[in-house]
Amino acid sequence: MTTGLGVPTIITWTQGGNNVYITGTFNGWKHKIKLLVYSTHDFSAVLDLPPGTHRLKFIVDDEWKCSNDMETATDPDGNLVNYLQVLDEDDEENNDEFGDNDLSTVSSSGSLSMAENKKYSNVIPPELLQLASVMANNDQKDDEELQQQRKTLLEWEKKQPQPPGLPPHLEKVLLNSHTVSEEDNSVLHEPNHVTLNHLYACSIKDNVMALATTSRYRKKYVTTMYYRPVFPKN
To answer: Are 149 and 130 in contact (CB under 8 A)?
Structure first.
């Protein structure tokens, strides 16, 4: 059940400690909420969270920690955080219709459910295949059943978890960066080690695509540029 403030959600910490707090994107990381003692090692709190995906983290005895009982991921700054998806009643019905995804979810009853025995494969979800087929027949606007199916599938697609963003340190590359010396434009900044051996591409400009990769041998760095003409298809 969703209240005017959000979905009542039970947050639990089961890894011990004396004083446990929680904070996250649901309050802008500005406030910490104290969890009450549930048993010897368990702490819990009930929060009214709006439907959607939330990132959060626990503060246990003045130390930031992630729970092993919840999904973890990195935030835009590369920090490890817990995350969960809070579902409204309408979202639960869609999940029942299309099947559960792998994201940890909290239903309107406040219980946390986690996908077990996750498996990754190259099998495309049937809903995406259905959506592609429906979008290919988008010109059939008079078909009410087809349009209703398209609307339902698009709503399902919007509620799926988004793919993780590019780690921030991979955005700081040598390609198109300012040179160190005005006299010798071949001298570049020393690259971060995590950017090595990646292939970077610039946007196509003047029918030319530029690619670059940086490698290291001991204390020397070598950046190789590749240029390839790209002509539009007739």
So the answer is: yes
Compute the chain's Rg from CA coordinates: 24
pLDDT tens for the chain, 234 residues: list them: 444 567 888 898 988 888 999 999 888 888 899 999 876 678 999 888 888 888 899 999 999 999 988 888 877 666 788 988 887 765 555 544 444 444 444 444 444 444 444 566 778 888 888 888 877 776 666 678 878 888 888 888 877 766 666 666 666 666 666 666 666 666 667 777 777 888 888 778 888 888 888 888 888 888 888 888 887 765
Domain 168-229: give its CATH code: 2.20.25.290
What's this model's pTM, rounded to 2 decimal places? 0.46
Token representation of residue 129: 């295949």
Please state, in angstroms and as integers, the Cα–Cα distance from residue 206 to each residue in 175, 177, 203, 227, following that order.
17, 20, 10, 12
Please tell me the distance from the alpha carbon of residue 195 to that of residue 133, in angstroms, as a whole number.
39
18 DSSP 8-state letter: S
Nearest to 10 by CA among 43, 35, 45, 42: 45
DSSP state of 226: E
φ/ψ of 7, rounded to 5, equals -95, 120
Domain 7-93 sits in CATH at 2.60.40.10
Report how far residue 57's alpha carbon sits from residue 77's, in angstroms, rounded to the nearest whole number: 14
Closest CA to 85 of 55, 52, 109: 52
Domain boundaries, the chain: 7-93, 168-229
